[in-house]
Amino acid sequence: MRRPVARNLTVLAVSAAVVSVGAAAPPGPESGPTPKTPVAVGYGGAVASVDPDASAAGIEVLRKGGNAVDAAVATAAALGVTEPYSAGIGGGGYFVYYDAKSRTVRTVDGRETAPLTADGKLFTENGKPLAFADAVSSGLAVGTPGTPATWQTALDKWGSRKLSSVLAPAERLARDGFTVDDTFRSQTAANEKRFRYFPDTAELFLPNGELPVVGSTFKNPDLARTYRELAREGVGAIYHGDLGEDIVATVNKPPVDPDSGWNARPGDLSAEDLAAYRAKLQPPTRTSYRGLDVYSIAPSSSGGTTVGEALNILERTDLSNAGKAGYLHRLIEASRIAFADRGRWVGDPAFEDVPTKELLSQRYADSRACLIKDDAVLTSPLAPGDPRRPASCAGGGKAAPTTYEGDSTTHLTVADKWGNVVAYTLTIEQTGGSGITVPGRGFLLNNELTDFSFAPANPAVHDPNLPGPGKRPRSSIAPTIVLDRHDRPVVAVGTPGGATIITTVLQTLTGFLDRGLPLVDAIAAPRASQRNAAQTELEPGLYDSGLRGQLEAIGHSFKSNPEIGAATGVQRLPDGRWLAAAEKERRGGGSAMVVRPAR
What we know:
Blueprint: H1 3-15, E1 39-49, H2 52-63, H3 68-82, E2 92-99, E3 104-110, E4 124-125, E5 128-129, H4 132-136, H5 147-158, H6 163-166, H7 168-176, E6 178-179, H8 182-195, H9 199-205, E7 217-218, H10 221-233, H11 236-239, H12 242-252, H13 271-276, E8 280-282, E9 285-289, E10 292-296, H14 303-314, H15 324-345, H16 356-359, H17 362-369, E11 410-416, E12 421-427, E13 480-483, E14 489-494, H18 500-513, H19 519-524, E15 528-529, E16 536-538, H20 540-543, H21 546-552, E17 558-560, E18 568-572, E19 578-582, E20 591-597
Parallel strand pairs: 16-17
Antiparallel strand pairs: 1-11, 1-19, 1-20, 2-3, 2-12, 3-8, 4-5, 6-7, 9-10, 10-13, 11-12, 13-14, 14-18, 15-16, 18-19
Protein name: Glutathione hydrolase proenzyme
Family: Belongs to the gamma-glutamyltransferase family.
GO molecular function: leukotriene C4 gamma-glutamyl transferase activity
C-alpha cells in the first residue's frame, strides 16, 4: 500500500542531485526581480509560495534561527505586500502546524466572522437575495479580519520570535518596493473598474491613474507604516486600537467616489466585533489513507472533511495501476459525492451540528463509494447521504448546489531544520477582496462574508451556511500535512482557488501518493474539478487531450477552465533534506527555496 510513497521519495532523492537552488534575503528593487524556481532541495528548512520575495522573507527568518512558524508569518506578511489582491491583514485564513518534538498536528482557525448584528437576511434586499456583484464591493461583504490574530496566536503557541521581528522583512519590502510582474498587472487590470469606485484604492493600485507597468517598482509606504505600528503595538492595534477604528469606519461608510454611481452598501461592523474576535485553536481533521495519516483543517472550513471523505471513498480503489481515464473518472466521482455531503452538512460548528467524525468515517465512505460505477456517471447535483445513519448506496433528501467562492487566496508551505512544518492558506476572498482600501493604511478589506449562502439553497432543507451573529462562513481552504506511520512528515500541500481548493489538494495528493509523480509534477499536472455540478471543469491540458473523449463516452460533461489554483508543498526526503515545490506556470510560476541548497 505504501510503495507509491517510497517511489516518490526515491525519484526525488535522485533528482535532488541536480537541483541547487536557494535564496538570499529579499533584494532591493534596484537589483531587479527575484528569480523564480519551482523546485529546490537542501538543508536547514524550506519555503514555497507563489512569490519569490515572500519566499525569500521566510528563508531570511529561517537563516536567522527562526522556526517554521516564525518563517510562515514572515512569508504571509510579505505576501500581503506582493500579493495584496489575494491576502493581507484585512483578511483571514487557516494555519496547520506539525510539531516535530511532540509529533502532533495543531491548527488555528483564523476565519473572518460576521458582525454580531448579522442574521440570515444579511444579503437580502427588498425580500430578495442581492446579486453577487452588488454584494462583493460593499461594506456588507467585510468580515472581522482574522489574519493578525492568527499570526499572534501561532507565534505565542509555537513560534520563537516576536511579531516585530518577523514583520521586518515585509515592512522593508513595502517601503522599498517590489518589481511589478505580468500577474500583478493583469490582476490589477481585471479589477480596474471597481478599484476606481474607491479613491483610496485607485490612488494606491493605479499610480497616476494608470495600471502599474511591468518591470516598474511598486511601493506601499502606507502598508510599511501599518506594519511598523503592528510591530510596535502588537495586533491589539487592530482589535482594540486606532487601526481597528479605521477599519470600522471604512466598513460602515465605504469611501466611494460619488461620481462613480456605485452603491457601496454600508456594513455594520463595530469595535465590539473586533474586540470579541478570537483565532480558534482546534484539533485537525485526520484521515487514514494508504497507511498514512492525512491531517487538515476542521470546520468552519469544509476542506479537511471534504478532502478526507473523498480520500476515504478512493481508499479501496487501486489508483496506482488504473489507466489515466480510469483514475480521473474515480477522482471526479469521489469529489462529486464529497461535495454533495459538504453542501448539506458543513458550516460553522459554533452554530451548526456538524457531523465531522461521521463524515470522515470509513464506514460512511464505503456506503457512498458503492454509488460509483466504472461505465456510468452520477447525475449532479447529487443528493447528500446521512453520515449519522449510513445506508449503502443511498442518498438523503434534496441536493444543495455548491455556493460560489472567489478563486483568489494564496498558500505557503514551510519547514525548518528541526522538522517542524506549516501549511498555511490565507485570503481576502476573491481577487481584490471587497475592493475597499482602508484610507492611509495600505491594505484591502476582505469580502469573505459572500461565502455565506445569500438565501437557503433549498427552503425545505436546513442550510448550515446562512449568516448569523459572529458566525464564520464556510470555507473550502484545505492546508494539509501527511505523516507516516511513525508520525513523521511525508509531505505538506495546499492551494488557493475557492471551492477548487478541495479538488486541487485531492488531485495533488493522489498524484503524489498513488500515481508516483514527483511533488513538483503532481502540482503541475493539468487539473480537473468536480464540485457536484452538471459539468466538470478541466484545464486545457486535459480538455484538449484525448482523455476528454474517453470520459465523455461514459457520460461525463466538461467545460474548460484556463487555470485552477496555485499550489505549493514541501516534502521530507529520506536523507533528511527538504524539497520545496511550487507551480511551474500557474500565476506566472511559484517560488521554492531552501536555506542551504544541496550540491
